[in-house]
Amino acid sequence: MDLSNKQFSPKALQDFKLIDRAVDEKDEQAFAELMKRYKKPVYHMILKMVRNVDDAEDLTIEAFAKAFKNLHRFKKDYTFSTWLFRIATNNSIDFIRKKKLETLSIHTGYQDDNGDSVTIDVQDDNLNPQEEAIKSQKIELMRMFVDKLPPKYQRLVKLRYFQELSYDEIAKELEAPLGTVKAQLHRARELMYDLVKDKEKHI
Length: 203
Prior knowledge:
Layout: H1 10-24, H2 28-50, H3 53-69, H4 80-99, E1 110-111, E2 117-118, H5 131-146, H6 151-162, H7 167-174, H8 178-197
Antiparallel strand pairs: 1-2
Helix pairs in contact: 1-2, 2-3, 2-4, 3-4, 3-8, 5-6, 6-8, 7-8
């Protein structure tokens, strides 16, 4: 695609090159570099929305998994950061509606790499987000990764993502200390981040 007439920042142009390498050459380092660039800002944006560290980490994994799964559909009409943040935002809004959380204002937007304002539109709170469809999509997404985890982490992840138990509920279910559950789930998330970056081997 000819980008000569578009005013993209140097970072955005670098992102386009990484995307080309990831999609056309199945370059795992390109996936890893894209995640390295945006993992922290995506996480912090989600954290402001859900105000829970564990949920923010889960939703960050889901956002990158969805983005990388659909990277071949990305169009260079706008920046990768805009596209990624919209995926993360929409996924988080679905989560918020489902959990009926009180959040900080999510009507405020952010600026992409070009300094353009990207607003987050939230529809009426009374709208039904089709909870079962959302849950099914999440399960389908996570199934791509869970079977690749070491056995000791698989049950933890299934309880957290598939049955959507809280950390306290998981601790009770496994008769394990809460601290142990949190530590092992943190490690499981790190392994899933690696699987997301290495997605071509299992998607």
